[in-house]
Amino acid sequence: MSLLSRIRVIPIPALEDNYMYLVFNKDSKKALVIDPVEPEKVMETSKREKVTIEGALITHHHWDHAGGNKELRALVPSVRIYGGDERVEEMDKKVEHEEMMEECGLKIHCLSTPCHTRGHICYSVTSGEDKVVFTGDTLFIAGCGKFFEGTGGQMHRNLNEILSSLPDSTLVYPGHEYTTSNLKFAAYAEPQNQDIATKLEWSRKRDGEKKETVPSSIGEEKMINPFMRVDKESIQKFVGSTDPVTVMINLREEKNNFRPKA
């Protein structure tokens, strides 16, 4: 996986297994924060990095992602808060699918990915050749979010049309640390996939070292994530269908009921 030369992304663990992120251009002192549910931790990180928080990108309205917005506003009154759902507290601007913005020396491409929530947004951020995407609870490493407010057809479009169209080198920063549990299901669904086996071994080691597993990449997700492999014969055989939307629905149901061994 290539190192970023211009963008710096700092994962900030929050709550039990959430991720917030501080992102900024390395030649700028201005930063964005993703899903700042624990703003004081974000402020500590920004001070350490000697950057000023100017904006917040909120992936969706759930409290464990947007629940810190009021506190962030109190700490940084001038902060600009972006989201895709009127239920996002303190939102200054509602963004739309394919909307392009520039903030803090970064180009931001807003991608509407409704399903986990109807107003979910993924944010593709670029600077020069560097490309990253913050996927909230739509795309996890080797997994995807639950279909709380949407359909399997929507999630199929989110993962296998919208996000999969990003360059394979795009680094993926999801909203939760679910990697090992997701890979256990992926290995169950596709036991002959050596890429999954290798990644699972690595992820377990990272867990043991109490280290994060982010980021992955779009290219890697196409190799290890069953929800982005709905066109593969092995996955289709596992769920008993060749229709991609049906495969997505059946995979999610299998994952919902999956009880992994230790």
UniProtKB/TrEMBL annotation:
It holds the Pfam family HAGH_C. It comes from the Eukaryota. InterPro entries: Clx_II_MBL, HAGH_C, Hydroxyacylglutathione_Hdrlase, Metallo-B-lactamas, RibonucZ/Hydroxyglut_hydro. Pathway: Secondary metabolite metabolism; methylglyoxal degradation; (R)-lactate from methylglyoxal: step 2/2. The keyword Hydrolase applies. Its EC number is 3.1.2.6. One of its GO terms (molecular function) is hydroxyacylglutathione hydrolase activity. Gene3D superfamilies: Ribonuclease Z/Hydroxyacylglutathione hydrolase-like. HAMAP family: Glyoxalase_2 (MF_01374). Belongs to the metallo-beta-lactamase superfamily. Glyoxalase II family. This is hydroxyacylglutathione hydrolase.
